[in-house]
Amino acid sequence: MKVVVLGGGIAGLCMGIYLHQHDIDVCVNERQVFTAVGGHAFLMHHDGITVLNELANESELHLPGRAVHTFMLKDPDGGLIMELPLEDWQCFKRTDLLACLNQLLPESHINNNRIFSHFIYEDQKIVAAAFLNGEREYGDIFIGADGANSLVRKALFGEVKFEPGRVKEVVGIIEHAELANLLNGKFTKFQQQDKGLSFGLIPTSGIEMVWFMQYDPLLGDIPDGITERTSEQYHTLLHGLCLNLLKDFPVEVKTVLNHNDFQTSYIWNTRDFDLLPAFHSQNVVLIGDAAHVALPFTSAGTTNAMLDAKILCQCLLDYPDHDKAFSAYYQERANSIKEHVNMGRNLRDSFLNPVSEFVIPLINK
């Protein structure tokens, strides 16, 4: 059996590593050559950390990640609203995790510069994936791991109906040793109590921190039609937007904004879609954001992608018939994914319509 993975991000690489560890012929195809630049950071729950430890079990590779043991919620004046312990959460830079995963899969199993174009059929069966560079990869099973805008998903099911998240997010990374040490191990979030506006900080190392601003665009936004690609003023306007919305927030927030390079920051228009009725068609199956997208409030996206890879691999080992394996994989994952989609929407609604009792913006199991 040969498995062709379409997408070499976190989900695709985890899939490739699991299959390779079980002596299954696998080829991971990525649209670009990995470079340790770009992207930002995210939180990972116990389940994702367990997957990473399993993948690196027989390796002497030093694993990335920085422990986050406390969640601190503060008001815009810096007053503490609540402080709670966190069990087995870590913060990862996306580039660090990708670099680690790339080292766990032999180069001979990774093909770069391959952008998926379409499937090739013989006798009404998919036998190969074709790429925009003219290359083809033949296989028995194909796994779509090409992200939220998945072309593989579109080829199987057509366009999905994305639901606007109604909340936008700005993200960035700064170097500030004093602040990083002061907040070491803490996920600190400043939250307006009467409107949808918050600012979060998480150290990724002894000198570096990831930050984010979540906001209701009705409070202020960059004018429609202005994007990073269409206007040289985008990053200047983004800087001004953050300064304006966060003008009443405490000194830590202003310190971050003053040290941030807004040329590397961007606005993320959050969105999701309802649980698909299936994750597969014929001999093609979806994992990660290609299969499901939830709003970012749960911090579950990366963990779910890694769990998909683990569970799908186990199902392929348990069921020689790929249709039964894919059905078992969906049955195992569907309820949890639906819960996270709904949780993200509930947390979004609480964020946009704050009440006296705050909900912790993290999955709890």
From TrEMBL:
UniProt KW Protease keyword: no
Listed SUPFAM superfamilies: FAD/NAD(P)-binding domain
Stored InterPro entries: FAD-bd, FAD/NAD-bd_sf, MOase
Keywords of the record: Monooxygenase, Oxidoreductase
Superkingdom of this protein's organism: Bacteria
UniProt keyword Ubl conjugation, yes or no: no
Residues in FAD-binding domain copies: 2-336
GO MF annotation: an example: monooxygenase activity
Family: Belongs to the 3-hydroxybenzoate 6-hydroxylase family.
The protein's name: 2-polyprenyl-6-methoxyphenol hydroxylase-like FAD-dependent oxidoreductase
UniProt source species: Pedobacter cryoconitis
